[in-house]
Write a structure and sequence with these properties.
7-stranded mixed β-barrel; about 220 residues; globular; Glucose Oxidase, domain 1
């Protein structure tokens, strides 16, 4: 594939968390259930499976409708939001993403920003929910909105923490989704480094739904 930078590098990296039975989900969400309902091993003519899970399972997107009552649903996603150039920024803070750390990156209007944190090499190794994951603070969320970012991606199941009384999960979502900053949550970025990438991320076209599982791939731009 030829990119805008005239590179022919085809080293795409899949940063999607595999869906499987027993995987970690957000507390209170339904467990993943993948069942082979028709099986050639049992003498059936073919194999046919079913999936039962929430739309915010594993690597997924949040549409504004997730927290904004009249917000856009996932089927209203403009394709150019999740296909194109993206920048991976590695966060050193092991607690939260704060504007003080972001100011050095000269984030510009229209960028797609993906945060690689301490979550990637740690949280996806276990099937228990990691309640101490690195999250975005309200002030950092506002910083990103003020900068005009159109997409934010993180490497665990939410941009905001449900455990911080000052930087609550709802507040962070309200700030970002209220500005129609679309969100990718639940990536595993352990295999990628900070830098510039081509991004492809496509949700299922679920009508009037606030989120969707996605497949996310990144291609380094050199």
């Amino acid at each position: 594939m030829t990119t805008k930078n005239n590179t022919t590098n085809t080293n795409w990296v899949d940063v999607t968390v595999p869906l499987r039975n027993g995987m970690v989900v957000w507390p209170g969400d339904i467990k993943v259930e993948i069942i082979r309902r028709v099986s050639m091993d049992r003498g059936d003519i073919c194999n046919n499976s079913s999936i039962n899970m929430g739309v915010h399972t594993g690597t997924h997107m949040d549409a504004p409708l997730h927290f904004i009552a009249k917000g856009k649903s996932i089927d209203q996603l403009p394709i150019d939001v999740t296909v194109g150039h993206a920048r991976v920024i590695e966060i050193k803070d092991k607690v939260s993403i704060k504007p003080e750390e972001l100011k050095q990156y000269n984030i510009k209007r229209g960028e797609r920003i993906i945060f690689k944190t301490f979550n990637s090499p740690r949280c996806w190794e276990i099937d228990k929910f990691a309640d101490d994951f690195v999250y975005i603070t309200k002030s950092a969320a506002q910083f990103l909105v003020d900068a005009g970012v159109k997409l934010v991606g993180v490497d665990y199941l939410s941009v905001g923490s449900p455990f911080d009384p000052e930087d609550g999960m709802k507040d962070v979502h309200d700030i970002l989704l209220g500005a129609e900053t679309w969100l990718i949550e639940g990536m595993n970025l352990e295999a990628v480094s900070a830098g510039n990438y081509n991004l492809i991320c496509l949700p299922l076209k679920l009508i009037n739904t606030e989120g969707s599982p996605v497949r996310v791939i990144l291609q380094p731009i050199k």
